[in-house]
Amino acid sequence: MSLVKVESSEGITTITMARAEKRNALTQELCDGLYDAWRAFEAGSDHVAILQADGPAFCVGADLKDPPAAMWKAVPDVSHKLSKPVIAATQGWVIGGGICLVMTCDLMVAADTTKFMYPEAKVGVFGGLMPGIVSRMPHKVAMELLLLGEEIAARRAYDVGFVNKVVPLGEERKEARRMASVIAASAPLVIRTLRDFANQTLPRGPAEIFVPQRYKLEQIATSEDRKEGTAAFREKRPARFKGR
């Protein structure tokens, strides 16, 4: 069974993490599934996406028994540049890398059971993306989350502007869908330009800037063109590049 389910309806792509039995802990397989979903969404004709998760928890972060080598591939707008909005619908625990997933979304609806926590300093791991949280909520609150590793409940996350709406458990997907329907019925060029201009004013953490560039360099380093260029130089002949 796929760890990521993707559905399309009425101009809305719904992306669902489906590893409920492990509380949607992030493995490389799950991260790769999300990466593929973001690429397909951007290339497709839908106007907005919803990111949600099955089970009582949205995402408890990296699976410490099978940690992903490239967790950043799961994160919207980091793994693959998006021109269209994403809405997160959360419930239960949103921990570590789970916060990174929702941090770069444009809107967020949280069930009243949602709790955010970033305990990485307590377990000695750090993936690099999380400091971008400082531009998504007030500095002191962000540092409390980063340095203390204590939970922040949905209502407080709403009070500091990290969440758009808090709703009773079971209503989060319905409300996210309502928001998505409004966007899907709006002028696509205006929506995309508003999002683009707004994102250009948003400060981003060092890893948010560096990781996509590193990925481009890795693509070049492992490309067919690199192999062809090296072979052509060695064989003293013109290279036949294919752009892949």
Task: Describe what this molecule looks like in 3D.
The two termini are 31 Å apart. By secondary structure, the protein is α/β, with parallel strands linked by helices. α1 links the parallel β2 (12-17) and β3 (48-53). The protein has a six-stranded mixed sheet, sandwiched between helices. The relative contact order is 0.12. Helices cover 40% and strands 16% of the residues. It contains nine helices and nine strands.
In short:
This protein has 244 residues and is α/β, with parallel strands linked by helices. The chain contains nine helices and nine strands.
Question: What does the average pLDDT come to?
Answer: 94
**Estimated helix fraction:** 25-40%
Shape: globular
Strand content: 15-25%
CA(first)-CA(last) distance:
31 Å
- Contiguous runs where pLDDT drops below 50 for at least 5 residues: none
Based on CA atoms alone, the radius of gyration comes out at: 19 Å
Major beta sheet summary: 6 strands, mixed
Which class do the helix and strand fractions yield?
A: alpha/beta
Strand order of the largest sheet: 1-2-3-4-6-9
Tally of DSSP helical segments:
9
Compile the SSE list and pairings.
Layout: E1 4-9, E2 12-17, H1 28-43, E3 48-53, E4 86-90, E5 93-95, H2 97-103, E6 107-111, E7 115-117, H3 120-123, H4 139-148, E8 152-153, H5 154-159, E9 165-167, H6 172-184, H7 188-200, H8 206-221, H9 224-235
Parallel strand pairs: 2-3, 3-4, 4-6, 5-7, 6-9
Antiparallel strand pairs: 1-2, 7-8
Record keyword descriptors for this entry.
single chain; 244 residues; alpha/beta; six-stranded mixed β-sheet; three-stranded mixed β-sheet; 9 helices; 16% strand; globular
